Amino acid sequence: MESEILELEKKYWQAMEDHDFDTVKKLTRFPCIVAGKNGVQSVDEAAFKNMFESGSNAKIKVLNISNVESQAVSKKSAVIAYHVELGTAYDVQGPSMKCACTSTWTKEDDGWLCALHTEAELAQ
User: Fold this and answer.
1) The pTM is what?
2) What distance in Å separates the CA atoms of residue 44 and residue 19, rounded to the nearest whole number?
3) Is it the case that residue 78 has pLDDT exceeding 70?
4) What is the DSSP string of the chain?
5) I need a labelling partner for 84 at 20 to 30 A (CA). Which of 43, 98, 121, 123 fits?
């Protein structure tokens, strides 16, 4: 199950890179909880779409995912934590940002959905 969850995270990040809202929506349980440098919030689908589209000018590129730790909590839930290194799609040679991320995934009728995601920028 842990490798399946990592593949789902990679698929989610790829959809973010490709600015593919349909895939992101299919992988997200709404309302989802998001925590990061702007605080903590519960986000419904409409608000999530607004957030997603407001970032359309900031094209990200996943450069690396490392230090992965994951755990099946039950047959229908799993958690994952990892480091992600992000650059911009326009300048992969420029400075990158490194974050520690966590996600909680739940298995529902339609498959695995991300119910919680956190990002914390790592100190340089």
Assistant:
1) 0.88
2) 19
3) yes
4) -HHHHHHHHHHHHHHHHTT-HHHHHHTEEEEEEEEETTEEEEE-HHHHHHHHHHTTTS-EEEEEEEEEEEEEEETTEEEEEEEEEEEETTBTTS--EEEEEEEEEEEETTEEEEEEEEEEEPP-
5) 43
